[in-house]
Write a structure and sequence with these properties.
By secondary structure, this protein is of the alpha+beta class. Helices cover 36% and strands 19% of the residues. The protein has nine helices and eleven strands. A three-stranded antiparallel beta sheet has the order 7-8-9, with helices on both faces. Strands 1-2 form a two-stranded antiparallel ribbon. Strands 3-4 form a two-stranded antiparallel ribbon. 41% of the residues are buried.
Amino acid sequence: QKLPIASTTKILTCILALEKGNLDDQVLVSEYAASMPDVQMNGKAGEQYYLKDLLYSTMLESHNDSAAAVAESIAGSVKEFVKLMNQKAESIGCTQTHFVTPNGLDGEDEKGIHQTTAKDLAMILRYCTKISYKAEEFIKITGRKVYEFQELNGKRYVSCVNHNAFLDSYEGAFTGKTGFTGKAGYCYTGAVKRDERTLIIALLGAGWYPNKSYKWKDAVKLFDYGFQNFRYQTVGKDVWELPNITVVDGKKEFVEITTDA
């Protein structure tokens, strides 16, 4: 089911910035970025920050102005960055996704509203944490619990606290992103690793204000179910132990069996 996804959008914004930018790049906050509604770090037009700092601001505190500034620094404008987002989503295999904003604020353009499905969102987080060559940096940022930084000219000091409560409350949790808008409700996508197993979930429309805790209860149920019911198991024999198949009245006396992963 296609639904708005609020700030869980920012996982794609972050991985794109990591892949196309440099953490030491200096980002200038524009008037447009500074005009973003709450939640924001209250950045002022003309201020400058390192890209790394704005990514922590985007992922830990979910600051909408930081996400817009990141988008503009990578692609020149939010509109061009959104094109990159949709191209990346398509390359990942998302078929039910359309992005309009880099921060997850509700939006609409000529191709539709800002939305995806739980399946597509989980696929994006899988890309961010398992496939992208910047996965390690993504996990480092999203797994950080507290982060502090300053505007490059020392005008302002920003302190960030990670809103992913699962990092402290569920064994093995190592990444994730929350989100909320009036249309999207409370949303969450996250990943947990125990032993050799990594499970990823995505929750959309998991309650509306004031039921902020519903998403955490649902997440616990899903992860518990996954760990209780799914495990790796070797089936069949190794390829070199498989027998040949005899061919009757054929050009060859037998054919070899091989496995295709």
